[in-house]
Amino acid sequence: MIGEMAIKPVVTIAPDASVQEAARLMRAKKVGALVVVNARKPVGILTDRDITVDVVAAGNDPAATAVSTVMHRGPRVVREDQGLLDAVKIFSSTGVRRLPVVNRAGALKGIIALDDVLMLLGEEMGHVSTALSRSLGRRSAA
């Protein structure tokens, strides 16, 4: 289940916080994205790229710009009781790189990144390859 793989706790921020606060939080927590929450439910995602492109490069003042004005609204989510393949389908159909993990009520429980899924799938493919090699080795010895 995705809930077992999700990174917890998630670094979050309120929609009315400033982009400057968000950038400082990202730096302090060493993360590239924040889940924007309202009443424990994800309402957006803000990435370091959003800050760079939509605020700094656009000439906007990070201290005077609210997170809600540059965040990606209505983020795709995956429920904690869904499987890995459900998350893979969402990643592949949407092109997002991070998925907030929520419970049945929609409250934030964690986050999963595409990179984490790819690493896990790579490890699993290694196990499959080893098992297949052993199986083929037994067949040729018989």
Give your account of this protein's structure.
With about 140 residues, the chain is α/β, with parallel strands linked by helices. The chain has a single domain (about 1-115), classed as Roll (CBS-domain). It contains six helices and seven strands, in the order αβαββααββαββα. The protein has a four-stranded mixed beta sheet with strand order 1-2-3-4. It has a three-stranded mixed beta sheet with strand order 5-6-7.
Brief write-up:
By secondary structure, the protein is of the alpha/beta class. It contains six helices and seven strands, in the order αβαββααββαββα. The protein has helices at 2-5, 19-29, 48-56, 67-70, 84-94, 114-141, and strands at 12-13, 33-38, 41-47, 72-73, 78-79, 98-102, 108-113.
